[in-house]
Amino acid sequence: MNSDQLRALPPQSARGDFYVEAGCCTGCGVPQAAAPDLVGWTDEGYVKCSWKKQPETPEELERAFAIFDGQELGCHRYGGHDPKIQLRIGSGDCDFRDAWRTADGLPIEPVESKAPDFWTESTFWERIRARFTKR
């Protein structure tokens, strides 16, 4: 999938560097819980989220980071070139890798962002197992 396909934005989506990958949203509600002022639902007849507003203040940027920290599938992406934002989000959710270049422009190995402990695979499966086992 090329970057134009990734950024096939619904008409009501706020244009900017933060976006939802086309066809990825599962309607989990995590983004709306983390930043209801920034992310909402589309009106396309099925559950799908979109950015209502691009973050402009440091507080809004922190709420945007909370979306990236809590998402499970990587549907929310950053398509900008700000190295500080790229480093905070992690290379897996960024379209560009400006933050992972030397002063000479040579690529360096990025460090992937770590999922919060509550999203790790082992605790996920423990929660599922606990839900279906009798106590």
Radius of gyration: 16 Å
In total, the number of strands is 4
**Biggest pleated sheet:** 2 strands, antiparallel
Q: Counting H and I runs of at least 4 residues, what is the number of helices? A: 5
Question: Could you report the average pLDDT, rounded to the nearest whole number?
Answer: 78
The total domain count is: 1
- Reading the helices and strands in chain order gives HEHEEHEHH
Helix content: 25-40%
Kindly report how far apart the N and C termini lie.
46 Å
User: In which order are the strands of the major sheet placed?
Assistant: 1-4
User: Strand content of the residues, in percent?
Assistant: 5-15%
Unreliable spans are none
* Shape by Cα distribution: globular
Find the structural class using helix and strand composition: alpha+beta
List keywords for this structure.
135 residues, 9% strand, two-stranded antiparallel sheet, 5 helices, alpha+beta
What can you tell me about this protein's structure?
- The chain has 5 helices and 4 strands; from the N terminus they run αβαββαβαα.
- A hairpin with a 7-residue loop joins strand 2 and strand 3 (49-51).
- With 135 residues, it is of the alpha+beta class.
- Helices cover 30% and strands 9% of the residues.
- The mean pLDDT is 78.
- A two-stranded antiparallel ribbon has the order 1-4. Strands 2-3 form a two-stranded antiparallel sheet.
- It has one domain (3-132).
